[in-house]
Amino acid sequence: MTLIPTPTERLARARTDLRLGLPVVLASGDVRALVLAAEGISADRLAEARALGPATLAITSWRAETLRARPYDGDLARLKLPGDAGADWVASVADPATDLAHPMKGPFEAGREGAADLHRTALRLAKSAHLLPAALVVTPVTADLPGLTVLDADATAALLDQPVPHREVVSGRVPLSVSEKGRVHVFRPGDGGEEHFVCEIGRPPRDKPVLARLHSACFTGDVLGSLKCDCGPQLHSALAAMGREGEGVLLYLSQEGRGIGLANKMRAYSLQDQGFDTVEANHRLGFEDDERDFRTGADILKRLGFSSVRLMTNNPAKVRMMEAHGIAVTERVPLAVGLNPLNEKYLDVKAKKSGHIL
């Protein structure tokens, strides 16, 4: 019956539920787990969840390293909740905002018995919803839980591994200051995620390498003119170069904060104010250095008819990822602009820790 949600549609619904503070259910065979995002968990829902069975707080190994907790499962730690643990305890463990003011958060008892697959999928769900990578997991749950979104755990893990297909919704002519021959394409991902945009300058031939820029959305830099990064200058410099050549393609990808979302990016900025660099801030939050999915850019380029690019980037990883996903990079075009006294350290970390060529 076509009216029944597909696994992909259930996954999109689950992301929304978690962002609203609602629990979802992960089912694996006869075992069910109740999952709540740690971010924004209420005292009432925490109490109701704990009444259903044994509860653990799943955090990534990066966050566990900060807290000096044992990640027995390698990439994550399953922290057992103390008997008196409330919503404030969950929030303080999940969010590093008060780590320096209140450093003594342990000792923690980390679980090591049984498989951690459900906890791992719960963390990935929270990440995909642009929430802090921490999740309360209650398992096994035997009570009837009507109205909650139920996900098959194996199918969900497989979906989170797969590249997301995109379709073009519409395109329209947009005269720009760099070229009157501008056109904007809107691409919608098949998993219900945020739309991505493409600015095409002129009519570049599809059988030749196109001058291209994969630009991750940066509200603070692109819109507000933030001096903490070089994103805005890179965006405008790339468009200007395409305007001078008379053709090019700029992909504006909704992967704010290297894929962690604007709220988490602001959390990282707050940690930078405490003295941590951009990579250290991401790790304290529980994220990898870079959470972006470069398959998105490759998929959209292919759907536009391009198979090779002259890629405007300072990041060799982008070159490798494009080539790994079927887009030939015939030239890396440097884009070293935007240096100022307020982002000098940020760019230095980009070069030394993330391999950017600056």
TrEMBL record:
<dbReference type="GO" id="GO:0005525">
    <property type="term" value="F:GTP binding"/>
</dbReference>
<dbReference type="GO" id="GO:0003935">
    <property type="term" value="F:GTP cyclohydrolase II activity"/>
</dbReference>
<keyword id="KW-0547">Nucleotide-binding</keyword>
<keyword id="KW-0342">GTP-binding</keyword>
<protein>
    <recommendedName>
        <fullName>GTP cyclohydrolase-2</fullName>
        <ecNumber>3.5.4.25</ecNumber>
    </recommendedName>
</protein>
<feature type="binding site">
    <location>
        <position position="313"/>
    </location>
    <ligand>
        <name>GTP</name>
    </ligand>
</feature>
<dbReference type="Pfam" id="PF00925">
    <property type="entry name" value="GTP_cyclohydro2"/>
</dbReference>
<comment type="pathway">
    <text>Cofactor biosynthesis; riboflavin biosynthesis; 5-amino-6-(D-ribitylamino)uracil from GTP: step 1/4.</text>
</comment>
<feature type="binding site">
    <location>
        <position position="234"/>
    </location>
    <ligand>
        <name>GTP</name>
    </ligand>
</feature>
<dbReference type="InterPro" id="IPR032677">
    <property type="entry name" value="GTP_cyclohydro_II"/>
</dbReference>
<feature type="binding site">
    <location>
        <position position="318"/>
    </location>
    <ligand>
        <name>GTP</name>
    </ligand>
</feature>
<dbReference type="InterPro" id="IPR036144">
    <property type="entry name" value="RibA-like_sf"/>
</dbReference>
<keyword id="KW-0378">Hydrolase</keyword>
<feature type="binding site">
    <location>
        <position position="218"/>
    </location>
    <ligand>
        <name>Zn(2+)</name>
    </ligand>
</feature>
<dbReference type="GO" id="GO:0009231">
    <property type="term" value="P:riboflavin biosynthetic process"/>
</dbReference>
<feature type="binding site">
    <location>
        <position position="229"/>
    </location>
    <ligand>
        <name>Zn(2+)</name>
    </ligand>
</feature>
<feature type="binding site">
    <location>
        <begin position="256"/>
        <end position="258"/>
    </location>
    <ligand>
        <name>GTP</name>
    </ligand>
</feature>
<feature type="binding site">
    <location>
        <begin position="213"/>
        <end position="217"/>
    </location>
    <ligand>
        <name>GTP</name>
    </ligand>
</feature>
<feature type="binding site">
    <location>
        <position position="278"/>
    </location>
    <ligand>
        <name>GTP</name>
    </ligand>
</feature>
<keyword id="KW-0686">Riboflavin biosynthesis</keyword>
<dbReference type="GO" id="GO:0005829">
    <property type="term" value="C:cytosol"/>
</dbReference>
<feature type="active site" description="Proton acceptor">
    <location>
        <position position="290"/>
    </location>
</feature>
<feature type="binding site">
    <location>
        <position position="231"/>
    </location>
    <ligand>
        <name>Zn(2+)</name>
    </ligand>
</feature>
<comment type="function">
    <text>Catalyzes the conversion of GTP to 2,5-diamino-6-ribosylamino-4(3H)-pyrimidinone 5'-phosphate (DARP), formate and pyrophosphate.</text>
</comment>
<comment type="similarity">
    <text>Belongs to the GTP cyclohydrolase II family.</text>
</comment>
<feature type="domain" description="GTP cyclohydrolase II">
    <location>
        <begin position="171"/>
        <end position="334"/>
    </location>
</feature>
<keyword id="KW-0862">Zinc</keyword>
<dbReference type="InterPro" id="IPR000926">
    <property type="entry name" value="RibA"/>
</dbReference>
<dbReference type="GO" id="GO:0008270">
    <property type="term" value="F:zinc ion binding"/>
</dbReference>
<feature type="active site" description="Nucleophile">
    <location>
        <position position="292"/>
    </location>
</feature>
<keyword id="KW-0479">Metal-binding</keyword>
